[in-house]
User: Fold these one by one.
Assistant:
Number 1:
Amino acid sequence: MKTVVIVDDHEDNRALLMATLEHRDYRLVEASSGEEALKLVGKEEPDLIIADVLMPRMDGYEFVQQLRQDPRNAQTKVIFYTASYIEKESRRLAKACGVNHIIVKPTDPDTILEIVDEALGERSKPAAIVPTPDFEREHLHLVTDKLSEKVEELETLTHQLEQEIVERKGAEDALRASEAHLQTVVENLDEGVIVSDLKGGLVHWNRAALTIHGYTKLEEGLRSQSDLVDTFELSTLDGNRVPLKEWPLFRILRGENLRDLELRVRNIRADWERIFNYGGTLVHDGSNEPVLAIVTVSDITQRKRAEERLREQADIINHARDAIIIRHFQDDRITFWNKGAEHLYGWTANEALGKPSGELLYADANERDAPLKVLLSTGEFHGELKQVTKGGRDIVVDCRATLIRDPAGEPRSLLLINTDITEQKKLEMQLLRAQRLESIGTLAGGVAHDLNNVLGPILMGAESLRCNRTGEQATAMISLIEESARRGSSIVKQVLTFARGVEGERVLINPRHLIDEMVEIAKRTFPKTIEVTGKYPEHPWAISGDPTQLHQVLLNLSMNARDAMANGGSLILGAENVEVDDNFAAMMPGAKAGSYATLRVSDTGVGIPRALVEKIFEPFFTTKDPGKGTGLGLSTSLGIVKSHAGFISVSSEQGRGTTFTVFLPAVQTDVAPCRKEAPPVTKGNGELVLLVDDEMNVRRVTKMTLETHNYCVLEANDGPEALAIFAQHKDSISVVLTDLMMPYIDGVALIRTLKRIKPDMIFIASSGQDAEPRLVELQGLGVVNFLRKPYDTRKLLTALESAVSKQLAPLPKK
């Protein structure tokens, strides 16, 4: 068995050669240095030595040089196994020293075995001994060159290492800075962050996580999820206890990705309960292996309470009886529609949302646009609006609107709170009518006195004409009778207009017209011991209001003034333009700064005691004797004024008199009517008119007037007679002029019957009483021409001309 000695200062290299050669039938001996190998050679007498070249203290060349000094080793085979000294000079010196082969690292095992087998199979030849001086010179030269080469390599490696150190240090500094930055960010997050290892150990809590859980620093007991069990209890929002294995961290460690997990957390020791929102996930390395878990936590207790409050408020709003609506300002589309709106208007939320409010709520677009000017200038609107339900029913609502602006100050949406006051308005109308009737009863004496004054000249003038008065006397008498009749007609018209009234119609009103009419009524009906005068500027500001209701206010105040002047005095009704500033508005309840048209009623009566001034507007409060007043006059007046967005001030001094000033929002425009000359009266062209009236005198005068103006007339005393005449002359009759109030068949029934006989017949209805209840029926029959009695020649002929030419004279407004 041949012996092989392996010499190498690296144990791994020796082990590799041992493993490669152990399958051959060789005895293998190893040495870690040249010195150790020289000792073994004397004992083992090896057949082959495999030696590394680069070794400490004694390299391979020195080892071989000393090996060959002993004649016994002259024929021992030597193989260099090296990664160094493979240049030409190195190989020459190795050959000169008696090295048989050189194996360059790294080499595959088969090549190593082939070279070893070849070396052991060669015939041994004594190796030449290189003289010591020559060997030392060549060895030194070789070592020096190799050393220089290694130094250069070392310098290069050193430079590269320095660069790498600088780069690594820079990377480490950047990493540390990034870590510090990340640490700062994490520490300053409002959201809590907890980092756990894969065993559930809590390795880091940021500041927010500590605060959320009620801690100020990372205390003992915060290192493991299990450590928290004695302090905290977790449950679902509906109160079901959450077991430890279902706590957020353990679910994350099982691989779940959590997001928006809301749980109730109770601190048993501190005795508080909050609602937390949990999230989290596993963090993986480059090999997609999990390395740690991150849990995020936020305290959402306040948010959940706010949401609950919002839900409660929304539920309250949704169940409010008032209609609460929100709509976009620009496109008018509805964005919120509560149950109250569903109940009031009949439209469900699904039907209303996204629809323009103008399409659903208003029959008249002006009603929708009316509040916009006020909203844009003040941001708020409060007033009454006419609207319509899904079923087409007309309603009146008390609207409170608020303009909502975006952060840039531009209008964004409107909040509307509408209260149905339809029935309330009907009751108010009934109350106002009752009050008007009460007022008419109070004024009846004065009206009767005026009518007697009117009828006296008429009766005396008629008797005078019977005495065959002629010439200038007859003409004067006729003029007197005509003037008295007109005056009587005016008195009756005023009484009827006031008694009937037309509530709810808001129009532009010139205050001086209100003052003039009230002054005229007061002069005719109040005691003559009271001097009545009216005062107003040349161009008073206009009022947008209900004339009937404002008449009622002035009448109530004037009658109170009359009652306060039992022994006579002065009553002044006036109008004035007033600018109300913030200081004045602050002193008056319900007042706002702005432009107002005022209506003033001043008397020189007994005055109101200071202690009673604050009570006079209370319902049913009165200082009059029982049976002489209801105590509703001033409270009703205040209600009317408030519905017009106005207010009332009172100034009174006992023994000197009282002044009531009504402030109404002004529309600053001159509404003085333009005086137009009356158009000339036109005559007929021989048209045949059927005149139906149960009053003979009315028929006689009307027939005479029509025939004078070139009309032909057929008379009928009542409905049946009219039917008989119409049957005979239906093709010739152009117009039927009929009274509404007649025996047997009234005017509406007659018109209905005649329409069946001749559908295209033109009718003119006439009445001296309130025709309002019959207007709807007349309109349904297509009758749109109406004459109110008493009418003069001009009105009669104008109505006929319009009817004949089919330029219809409209019915009076309801």
Note: The first helix runs from residue 11 to 21.
Number 2:
Amino acid sequence: MAEHSKLGATYIIKIQGITMKKNKSIPSVSVNYASNGSSTKANEMGMRVMQERAYNKRGEQYLLIKSPPASGKSRALMFIALDKLHNQGLKKVIIVVPEKSIGASFNNEPLKKYGFWADWEVTPQWNLCNAPGDDNGGKVNSVKAFLDSNDRVLVCTHATFRFAVDRFGVEAFDNCLIAVDEFHHVSASPDNKLGMHLGQFIARDKAHILAMTGSYFRGDAEAVLSPQDETKFETVTYTYYEQLNGYEYLKQLNIGYYFYSGSYVDEIADVLDTSMKTIVHIPNVNSRESTQRGKTTEVGEIMHSIGEWKGKDPITGFDLVEKPDGRILKIADLVDDGPERHSKVLTALKDPTQKNNREHVDIIIALGMAKEGFDWIWCEHALTVGYRSSLTEIIQIIGRATRDAKGKTHSRFTNLIAEPDASEEAVTDAVNDTLKAIAASLLMEQVLAPKFNFTPKNSESKAIEGFDYGTAGYDPKKENVGFNQQTGQFQIEIKGLVEPKSKEATRICQEDLNEVIAAFVQDKTALERGLFDSEAVPEELTQVRMGKIVKDKYPELNEEDQEAVRQHAVAALNLTQQAKKILNNDLEKGANTALIDGVRKFTMDVRDLDIDLIDRINPFGEAYAILAKAMTEDSLKQVQAVIAGKRVTLTLEEARELAKRALKFKQERGRLPSLTSPDPWEKKMAEGVAYLARMKAEAKNG
């Protein structure tokens, strides 16, 4: 596959079928990057690109860093925190991490050695992640002792910090920088204590807050911050595209799912390539995918599927398994939680002298560990059995395989999912897992793509400096697609596009479209109808369902701004899907093209790139095409039957939304939509009007 297209774009997205036993395959999103080394090069102060971008905002009181795993967020914090202490008059820095193991990310660093003006130092007694005792005992007293001391930096867990705020009040932390690592653990829900405390800190306005996350969206959960609090944060965004495009070694990332039947341990060998350094996450013992034979039994069966067990290494505690070809694999079992053995394996994995030794371990098998904050740069394959409960968790798991390391050119994430079987209950569960896997895949395609910037096409539109508009250049008579290779951003003109007016709507369109798309692709009604309902009209999904999601998510926006956000989100999702569809067809013919070519080809193939055209595309059409190749015909029919059995008639809320669209239709065309129209969307709007009229008549007569 070519790494560069004729336009210089380096983003390639395709479906890669890897044939397995029983004619099953992994439909895989395959993304190629330039590997130009820019994201790993440091400036004269020792800062990489993301860190420099964050440091430039160091004067902000409230700062949110949204950046992928392994992009250097902990060191970015060190640079900013030192400036806050030395140049901005703050007294203390308190770093809050979700679990003790992540505290090690903030150990001493000789930053002067790399060009910065100060070193990062944490007095051992104030890294409470290493201290004995529980979070609500001596550690809380240690927080108070730290606040009363002359020392300036403390590291503790989210739990310790919550108890400390409860005991001493938010005022005790005035004039401190509170840095929250893995910020996605926080939410605006009243049940989330840390989220509630952050709201109190912001209301008091006497502390500085720096929030860091590699997976900010919370598609099916509470918002991380309330809208009024979020507007106070200055955001530093560093995308997956920027990071991976700027790596030195890693050139390709594949993401896909694999359907199995029966027990996963019988088929795991089909997708476990032992030549790749792999983290295997087995399913929770209470999940549908569990064999119910016990977690340690499952680990033993996985090892047996790889080769013959030869004992344990006495020093590391790693299991030694001999392959049929005579190769001995070292397997770290993090599932067996016997204290002595578990501790030995963990210590061996964390051994700093082995960090750069590729041959230290071959496979890690885990259950709840080896996700967030786990650093094994050599991991090439994250193999996960069963659907994980959140997109955030999937992002974190994928992040284990996206570290850059010498000689590591390819990495992969594979999700093993149970194929539906005959019993109705199991079919329903399997359908839900399948839908979740598709949602994750769709979202990851969006996360890994370059950034979309949309502008309305009008008489004043013109070329923007720094953007490549293809071999023909910018055409003032047509909608244009530009691409900036350095920043990894698209500039796309769309006729009829509504522009956001308020500051918040503009921020959402620039920064948070993936938040909106995450909520949309996880909306079961949209996903089920888009994939399996042959009678679904695309506008029901793009206008009604997406419109409802935007209104529910951003009720503070006015209608025009809500419509602008809706249009931008639909455009981003549908353009990625259409480009992918074109590339899939081209790749089947042997062509090698990049996503920018796919987007540009799509816009050239249509007469006008307008918002109505984009709204008429089913966002899930290409996902269904992939699913049809991945599942057996019988399983696909079973899934369709389950969805068909759940189909419901119009709801009152949907009818109101359709009636609203019908009113706009009347304003534009001088008549109401017709129930006998051959156009399915016009007919659907007319059904909405008729439904409301019927409801009104029934209420009047009743």
Note: Residues 145 and 460 are 63 Å apart (CA to CA).
Number 3:
Amino acid sequence: MHSTVMSWPRRIAAVVLSGRRGSRTLLRLPLALFLAVGLLAVPAAAQTKPKSVAADGQGKKGVKGKGKKKVKAQPTPAPAPAPIPADTFAPPDDPSTTTIPEEPLTPAAPSTPPANEPAPEPAPSPVAAPAPAPAATTPSPATPPPGGLAAPGDSPMAPTSPFVGPEGNRPLPPPSSMAGVGPDDPLGAGSNIEDQFQQLLSEVKVTTAGKRQQRLQDVPLTVAWIPAEELAGTGAFTLCEAVQYFPGLECRRGAMRKVSVSARGLGSNFLSNRLLLLKDGRPLMDPWTGQFYADETTPMTNLKQVEVIRGPGSSLYGSGAFSGVINLIERQPSDLIPEGRDFGLEGRILAGQNDTYRVQTTAAGRAGPVEMLANYYGFFTDGPQLLNEARKNVVDTNEDAKVHQVSGKLKVKNFSLDADYTDSNLGRPGGQTLSFKGNCGRCHYTPDDNEYVQNLNASAQFDSQVTDNLRVYAQGYTVFKRRKIDLKNMITQIMQPSLGKRRRFGGEVRALLTLNDNKLNITFGGDAKDDIINNQNILQGLTREDTVQSIFGGFVDAEYRPMARVVLSAGARYDRYQIPENVWSQRTDQISPRASIVFHAMEDLTLRTNYGRAFRAPTLAELAINQQMYAATLIGSPDLRAETLDTYELAVDFWPFQRRVRMTATGFYNRATNFINQQFMFGSTSQFRNIGDARVVGAELEMAAQIPSLGSSFDVAYQFLDAQALPFDGGPATQLDYAPHHRVYARARSAVGKVGFVEVYGLYVGERFDPGFIVETTGETRRVQLPGYVTATARVGVNINENVSMSLLGTNLFDSKYEESFGFPAPPRGVFTEVKLSY
């Protein structure tokens, strides 16, 4: 396809995208942003004749999903509301002055707020762009709701604004902890934008932090609410690729499709995880490894938003929620059905290099009290040739992937059912050398290894308001997983299959009790899980009857508001494990408490402090594995003790400049005991052991800003970590694996004209240690230290009409050469195009 762009953007593109060593790293991010803006600004600038009000309104139905009537122009703009005196501050929906509606307990399907409380709209699609406004008119003054705040839908637009803002569900920057929610024109230059943001601060609600809907400003934990569009903007095909672009989270990819996700320096090895993954509140962890697979086998499809907690979550979720929680919240049928209709359709098609294709189709319908949704996801790629070795005449053709997923949802009043089935056929690329010991996660590969994975997840939920003060929620779910790996024997050249099966039955019952005019909210309940593992790679003397476990837990979590400015909360959970003693000889019950205070010191200043204890029980793999892979052997240990973590956190949220800027500073101290990791024994054999304790001291600085006159938003986040391993034997402290001292994240987003948008994401990761070891010629070993790197992603898009949109996506724009894990290079620059159709 021939370009009609003038020569100067081409020259800039040649500099930015060439990857020359002479280009300065610090200039690359702004150059990429200016390039993307320039590419879209050229056609926008050509429109020298603005449409008249009458012409612009012809054939238009207004912004889709707004449901607002056109308002005739008035001779004078709307007056700005009177400022709120400082001495009369109270949160906008303080329970002492405003009745708070009952909130549902189902994370996936929040209840609809009453008419006087505007509900957060669903996140836009991955290729959504700003929709044209009916006309640049000045609406008549709107009557503000109680409390003196104008409702987002009634905010006036200044007639002189050069930018007509995006749809009302366009997300604000992620670090502001308000992503996915916006006023009708969050980037427009309306005189009431400060009040809109103030009201949003009280309206934003999350469910993961307390297993109930809470106002975000009252949650003491560090929580981010990430809409699906933000994930799409990162250019990620997997959850692992996406989370790297969000503050406080890290993911590294290794050989044989292995990934490891961590938060705040408390990393995970490739056979366990210290971060919990949920889907609509249900755990997606592998019962054998305790790991969640943030690769192609967990498609990011039909997502509405993602809620992320950085910090311990064991007081509600038990083991696994050690350093954080990720909750994937899917769209419900009502999210796809347009207002006034009973049927909705959406389709997306992506294509790009390496014969990469991604197809998603979703249909939803309503018939009386019944709502239904069906979804198909397909991903096919040959993958980049990351591990070619010319000197050995080895060509890597093992990055291919074929993934199919079908899923559905059915809701009838208080009951709902959902299920999904995923079938994956994945190549298993390996590492380049055998130059290290003690970590079979990246041993040398054979080019024909393959992995076949089938997952079936199903659940049923019931949610009912029993009385005015009591709401009850119950769910049951099941997980079936079959994983077969074909490994080539390098001596016999025969493919040898290795089969593993997992089965989990689980359930939960919980209730929300509200007392004292909604000043006291108590969530309490219990859950149970029953796991059976069929794996042939277990310690000698164990049988399939031994690799089983049952986990029972009970929890309570309360929130109390003694006065308008103060929110007190506390909770605790008890967990009991039933595992055969010959598998886990050091089995212990666990109690995980937490306590916190939120103080709204001023209308634009909030202080948060939190203490929490978390634990992680050793996984069945860490206890019982006995597996030889190529040249390395990994064995478990039945005498492992559970890890524990004590976290202290203090944070300040500040909204200066009339709430157009948000600044957040967070400091935290983590002390982990009985840290479990692989310990080198002899030869190429390692064993899981309690190697010592760990201490992490860190700080996170985040800033988000809106520039209404430009229709733009920017945010940047910096993280400092001092993560030290403290050996039991009193030896010197060493830096934890994959815990860089410095990490910087940046994002810029801007609307171009009335229908276009551009997004740029940037990431810097400092030097960090890898779990591998280098073997010197003397026979001594030393730790692998990986250099820092910079990478960036950009996306530009345009709405062709209200039903068709397109976007162009570029990943690793600078073609940076780096390794997330030792011996496993990152993918090179990629270019992809996506089309979205909706009806």
Note: The chain is about 10% helix and 45% strand.
